[in-house]
Amino acid sequence: EYHTPVGSLRTVTVYDERTRTAGITISHVERYPFSGPADYAALEYLFRHAHAEPNDAGYLAEAERIGDRGFLVAYVSASASPMHFIQRELMPLETFFFELHDRPDEVRRLTEAIQGYWQETLSVASRCPAEVFLLGANYDSAIQHPRFFAESIQPALAEFAAELHRQGKFLLTHTDGENRGLLGHYVASGFDIADSVCPSPMTRLSIGQVREAFAGRITIMGGIPSVSLVRESMTDLQFERYLDDFFAQIGRGDRLILGVSDTTPPAAEFRRLRAIADRVEAFGPVG
To answer: What is the per-residue DSSP string for 168-204?
Structure first.
């Protein structure tokens, strides 16, 4: 519960032993802080008085554990901007779109109230000793549609990318989802790594179309759709043909960190993971 001079807010987040046992690592929001128009005043007050403080201990401990086995990404936020934060974290998705239509002035004022806290958070985060930072996740052209992305997400990504680039650092954003209509906006955002690119058959874009749109300006992380590892989704013959087509589409293989998008499913066949590794070895390093 959050108590302010202009009203109180209540949230409910579920992360219990049952979810931990199931291997779930992301908590479930059962009740969002926004329950109706009366909550705008308290939300504005809350974020106008919120502050971000540095805490690098967690990153440094994990960096020591990883060592030189890979690069560690500093997680900033799954939201890429104040408006995206409202959409993801403060109210249910359908409520957000109704509010944006019915009460656009209130939504804009809340966005402005979050802005100062948001900028302070990014400033604190950028001083972390990490090299790569994650800001924003789970875009879909049906929800973060191209006009919404261009107006409410792209400027914030571009600003943070520019700040990180001034420090010799890199910006990663998590792009799994249907990306039709968004690829040009990704390039214009100036970020460096598109994490968890998930091509057809899970979405309507092929890996070749994504690479062509990025034109060497964005590194792709991911690329192998998780369903390809599951026998119920692809037969062995279909899987082999998919790999033939996939490796034909990646060209030289530059600006590509190959991986499974979004994650390897529990029903994945290990033999297929080994088959991908064999293909990578045969493909060889980028010349």
So the answer is: T-EEEEE--S--TTTHHHHHHHT-SEEEEE--TTSSS
Token code pair at residue 143: 């929800």
What is the value of pTM for the model shown?
A: 0.94
Contact by Cβ (8 Å): 163, 171: no
The phi and psi torsions of 189 (rounded to 5 degrees) equal: -70, -20
Strand (E) or helix (H) holding 233: none
Report the C-alpha gap between 111 and 44 in whole angstroms: 9
Instruction: Report d(CA 82, CA 139) in Å as an integer.
Output: 15
| Rounded distance between C-alpha atoms, residue 104 and residue 156, angstroms | 20
Tokens of 238: 């279909």
Give the tokens for residue 26.
């992301």
For 71-80, write each residue's pLDDT tens digit.
899 999 999 9
Biggest CA–CA distance in the chain, Å, is 65
Give Cα 97 distance to the centre of its chain.
Answer: 20
User: b vs e for 16-26, b when ≥16 Cβ sit within 10 Å of the residue's Cβ?
Assistant: eeeeeeeeeee
Share of the chain above pLDDT 90, in %: 93
Residue 255 and residue 214 in contact, taking contact as beta carbons nearer than 8 Å: yes
